[in-house]
Amino acid sequence: MNSAAPALTPTPRALAWCLHLLVIGLLSLAAVRAVTGERPHAGWIIAASVLCGLTYAAGPVLPGVRRSRRAAALWLAAVGACWTVLLSLSADGVWVAFPLYFLQLHLLPRRAGVAAVVATAVVAITGFAVHQDSFSAAMAIGPALGAAVAVAVVWGYQALYRESEHRRRLIEELTATRADLAAAQHTAGVLAERDRLAREIHDTLAQGLSSIQLLLRAAERALPQAPQNAARYVDQARQAAADNLAEARRFVAALTPPTLEGTTLADALERLCTTTSARHRITARFHLTGDPAPLTTAHEVALLRIAQSALANTVRHAGATTAEVTLSYLGDHVALDIVDDGHGFDPTLLPASDPETGGFGLAVMRARTQALGGTLTIESAPGRGTALAARLPLTPPSATEPEAHP
Length: 406
Prior knowledge:
The protein has helices spanning about 15-35, 40-60, 65, 70-90, 95-105, 110-130, 135-220, 225-250, 265-280, 295-320, 360-370, 395-405, and strands at about 285-290, 320-330, 335-340, 375-380, 385-395. The chain is of the alpha+beta class. Helix 10 (about 295-320) links the parallel strand 1 and strand 2.
């Protein structure tokens, strides 16, 4: 028999004490009836009851009974032997078989437990029949029915316990899965917000600081020979700083860009072209084609940021004299085209993004368009200028609003 630790079904403390009290009560009943009934061998009956009680009491005290199948089987055999002696002396010992059924089914493996219950029932029926000097079917009903009830109760309790444990494990797994899902959603939200912050900082603060730097360099070059031009450049740099301060404050508060407040996207793009032409040596012109359709805030913010970034790149890198910005409403799409006459570049040989030198502009523009289900195309070649086209589908506001206000 396997002596490893048995996988016993835990029982509530109240049930265990009820079983202990039942055994003690039945043994005491046998001893008391032996004395009050003036039965023969009363002393031996009392001694057998006490011995059986002491043997039974040793089981809960010995830790090996719950840890080892072999120790549990030996203890049950000792209790059964003492009970058999009591049964041979008194017919009242037959009632002790009922708690023994529960002990055998609980401590022994299923097959061994059933076999022990059957053997105990046979001994109980035989012993009772011997004391009655006759045998009838009614004598077998009590012990057999008690055995059947014990089997049904113990197996039913074990099935309920297994089902309860299964549900408990499922709940624990569900709780752990929900915690993992919440952590993954939190991480995804953090990454999405970090990506949004990176795009906003690049298209607002970084571009504004770059414009201020260019204006101050122009003022530095003009200062010795044309102080009035230098003063104009400094004033424009101061205005650019004020505009970027407003952008930063609105950006921190997660509000709509100030260039879009109280105006349309077309007006904001036209004002952007005017400001760019006034601050830098480039002529930026705005064109509107098609019938304007209502756009979501996410679409307007994305197109405005793309235009700002594209014109900033034109000013810094293209060496262009003119830039054409066209906003086109194409039925179910809206398109933004920025074309300049600069020296152009090879789109396949773009430098890697670097925190010191930049190079994030095109990646940020492409991320903005892809987030709204659109496309970004770039056509350029050395000496032939650059054409950038952003195309966005006109989707319902509910599908894109979270992008503007995550």
